[in-house]
Amino acid sequence: MTDSPRTKPEVEFYEGPEPSDLVIIDIEEGTGAEAQAGSTVDVHYLGVDFESGEEFDSSWSRGQSINFPLASLIKGWQEGIPGMKVGGRRQLIAPPHLAYGPAGGGHRLSGRTLTFVIDLLGVK
């Protein structure tokens, strides 16, 4: 596991209507290796509900980053992390079709637009 010198992010409120497409906002540009579509990424992340701003998941709260092949993550991450460089922090706003699917899809977050702040710590 890598340790990020950063602290848990605050999610900036997104001005405007709930997006229907993926929104990618670079908060801080990284200078390390670039994530590719087939990469395994080591990330710290915070996830909040777009509408309520309520946190639903955070690696920060567990005190350790996570390692995942991008291909096994939600579409919003598969589309929103490639091109990001190690050391960067990026905000993604993923509408339901890029997150956990439409309402009634069986996941507790189905039908929700989700906002993530992701710190890219490593790429394999």
Automatic annotation (TrEMBL):
It catalyses: [protein]-peptidylproline (omega=180) = [protein]-peptidylproline (omega=0). Gene3D superfamilies: 3.10.50.40. Keywords: Isomerase, Rotamase. GO terms for molecular function: peptidyl-prolyl cis-trans isomerase activity. Pfam families: FKBP_C. It is an enzyme of class 5 (isomerase). Its EC number is 5.2.1.8. InterPro entries: PPIase_dom_sf (IPR046357), PPIase_FKBP_dom (IPR001179). The keyword Metal-binding does not apply. Residues 38-124 form the PPIase FKBP-type domain. It comes from the Bacteria. Belongs to the FKBP-type PPIase family. PANTHER family: 39 KDA FK506-BINDING NUCLEAR PROTEIN, FKBP-TYPE PEPTIDYL-PROLYL CIS-TRANS ISOMERASE FKPA. This is Peptidyl-prolyl cis-trans isomerase.
